[in-house]
Write a structure and sequence with these properties.
This protein is mainly α and 369 residues long. It has 2 domains: 57 residues, no CATH class; 244 residues, no CATH class. It contains 11 helices and 3 strands; from the N terminus they run βαββαααααααααα. It has a 3-stranded antiparallel sheet. β2 and β3 form a beta hairpin. α5 runs antiparallel to α10. InterPro entries: PAP-like, PAP2/HPO, PAP2/HPO_sf.
Length: 369
Amino acid sequence: MDQTLHLSLSFEFPRETTQRFSLSRFLHSYSRNQQRVVETFSPAPIIIISNAKSMPEIQLGAHTIRSHGVTVARFHMHDWLILLLLIVIEVVLNVIEPFHRFVGEDMLTDLRYPLQDNTVPFWAVPLIAVVLPFVVISVYYFIRRDVYDLHHAILGLLFSVLITGVITDAIKDAVGRPRPDFFWRCFPDGRGFFHNVTRDVLCTGDKNVVKEGHKSFPSGHTSWSFAGLGFLALYLSGKIRVFDQRGHVAKLCIVFLPLLVAALVGVSRVDDYWHHWQDVFGGAIIGLTVASFCYLQFFPPPYDPDGWGPHAYFQMLADSRNVVQNSAGMNNLSVRQAELENVYVDQQGTSMEISRSNTRDTTRMLESC
């Protein structure tokens, strides 16, 4: 509930003197503390401001894409520019040549798994990690009509996926670990060629295929999936209030479903012999870690009582309350100022009448003498 300020004034004026209320001193004290101000004048007045709850809660549907979308997007313009920069970095990391780790003849024993197609193709990863969470976020927007939630959820999701992608591909290029099917990438015909001295492999296969063979750790499919679906799991846990201490296990099943899909994507990478199990495990850790940081950047923790909404929404509510409080306080001050001026005029008029009466009495005494 919101709050407005109520102003109560009590004055004590001496009979023989007239005191004028100092509004400037009161405004200065009021601006320093909006909750409670006690200002004492000599001889009084005493001014006390107390709080009362009366402003209605901001209703749903008041902040839509049409009414506030452009304003919210402009406020986060620098964040969108950083997203574009991350996309450029991701493209560069996929173009450059990874580190070609030494692969000796005796090291190929664990790298002779068959070369086969992906169960989850590359083009399906953005659909799973980005499009699917985006659809869920959009559905929630049409239910609640809150542009703050929509904008920050999409921004957090994109940051989660792109930061994870940059970290994953940077590590891939730096480590250069060979995939389990590296032998068949390097020697498509099954005949190996090695350096005469070092016995390092001399690959005869397609350069692009061999290049991908040096990008085993960590798993990009897994890290992207856990980054996007991990963010979705956190988003859902806040919206359906999983940690409301009511013991509804069905809510946990809803939250675990995206994580299960991400885990199955990771398992498919091992089954297809594109990654070692350590690659999948490392990718999952990277994706979940980045997703958690990005989510908490825009939303409270899911176990928080306010975990259903973004930080920006509650900040907007606080700013609205402050505006209403200041407006109500200034209105009350203007009314009280008028009352104070009337009091001053009445006191001054009373003093003048008393003075005139004393003058008449003195004149009569002189005449009688």
